[in-house]
Amino acid sequence: MLDQRQIERRAAEAVNSANVRQPLYAARKKIFPKRASGRFRQFKWLVMVITLAIYYLTPWLRWDRGPFAPDQAVLLDLANRRFYLFFIEIWPQEFYYVAGLLMLAGIGLFMVTSTVGRAWCGYTCPQTVWVDLFLFVERAIEGDRNARIRLEAGPWSARKLLLRAIKHAVWLVIAVATGGAWIFYFADAPKLFGEVATGTAAPVAYVTIAILTGTTYVFGGLMREQVCTYMCPWPRIQAAMLDENSLTVTYNDWRGEPRWRHAKKALASGQPVGDCVDCNSCMAVCPMGIDIRNGQQMECITCALCIDACDGVMDKLGRARGLISYATLADYNANLALATAGGTGAINPALIRNSSTTFVDGVAHFHLRKIFRLRTFIYLGAWLAIGLVLITWLLTRERLELNVLHDRNPQFVTLSDGSIRNGYIVKLLNMIPQPRTVVLTLEGLAGAEMSIVGVDLPAGRSFAVPVEPDRLTMLKVFVRQPADQINKPMQSFKFRLGDEASSESAEYTASFNAPEIAR
């Protein structure tokens, strides 16, 4: 038996032991992004203006559909179960169009992410757009980064209280406008605006405004980057969309390292010097508060503001732009191998450049053709195929539908002359916002005639029926067949519905029931 002193001791410690345990919640470190300037920042301004204009102004656009339909261009009319999108009207049974649009959005998002990374997050995500808007207000009131940091660190004073009150008041106005704009998509915007202003709108309108006001204010003004980091699932999903040929915002350490704040002294002493001067401008402008020089990170939304900041520094230093750039992993690895002599040594700037503005021929740079690759074309092909199917269905769909319900009890009635009568509920659906007259015809069922309750006309095989615009018309129809024409207890026949003006038609195969003794 071994002595306990002979047992080997392992250098191990539980990760949740008291002396190493981390708190489950860490207090947020407030971020003060510096205003950036450059081509990507200008593009973000443009996207923000366009997306906000679409959101706030769309409910006020008008579209003339005639006197029998609403004239709001985009309207989600839940009360009447209609979706209006300019010239398109979607009924509940056509919800597959909405499913198709969601599929287009999903595949489009996959295509964009696999090609240019999280461009959706960096430019068009509602969280990004509204945070940009709230930051714009904050800078306009409290100043740029250094001024806001000083204001935050300073004691409470009348000036600080006034600036904070103005900022939060403007944020609340934006949040209320955001919640208010949303409800206008579900009812006539001018009318609903008047009702909300006068306090006569439905309670659900005020509840919706209150909820969206709160979420916009909290998410856009208070939580900001925490929504992207902790609440949004997309940062955790996007890795599956990327490959070595996907463009992502990348710090090119193969030309930036070793970084020096005093490059002239380092050069004078014969040490290799990279392009990065460790100015931290890329961190100062990042709305997520990360350092892109640490490599790809879940928090990065690829807004490319760090590219603008770094390019500005490179311009001042007289060096080539692109120290931080959109690059693929394949190009990055190739350039890193070149800068390290195939991975045999540390990064040596002399191996990849001819001068401060030019590089050796072997250095890989971004080219537009790198976007167009097999994976991109597969996504694009699927996206176009679904879009083409939706457009084809939309252009060829019938705006006239027919549905028939056979009476369950009784299934048939024997009349005094021996003939058999069946009853039906016939539903005529006019799916255009215009009244029209359609013809209901009985096809098959030898010798049979039909009559319509409420129509003071003799029985026959065809009737002209007026239908209301954009409405369902229900008819009670009786079909009678002489006894000598009945040869089996169940016969099939058709109701046909037609509109001569539009050449639209619909048909429904129904059954005619008779007793066994009538054969």
Explain the overall architecture.
The chain has 519 residues and is of the alpha+beta class. Helices cover 39% and strands 17% of the residues. It has helices at residues 39-57, 96-116, 119-124, 126-142, 145-153, 158-183, 189-198, 203-223, 225-231, 234-237, 253-256, 263-268, 281-285, 305-317, 329-339, 374-396, and strands at 74-77, 82-85, 88-90, 248-251, 324-327, 400-406, 413-414, 420-430, 436-443, 449-452, 462-467, 471-481, 490-499, 504-513. The strands form four sheets. Strands 6, 7, 8, 10 and 12 form a five-stranded antiparallel beta sheet that branches. Strands 11-9-13-14 form a four-stranded antiparallel beta sheet, with no helix packed on it. Strands 1-2-3 form a three-stranded antiparallel beta sheet, with no helix packed on it. Helix 2 (96-116) packs antiparallel against helix 16 (374-396), helix 4 (126-142) packs antiparallel against helix 6 (158-183) and helix 6 (158-183) packs across helix 8. It is elongated and about 120 Å long. The model has no long low-confidence stretch (mean pLDDT 89).
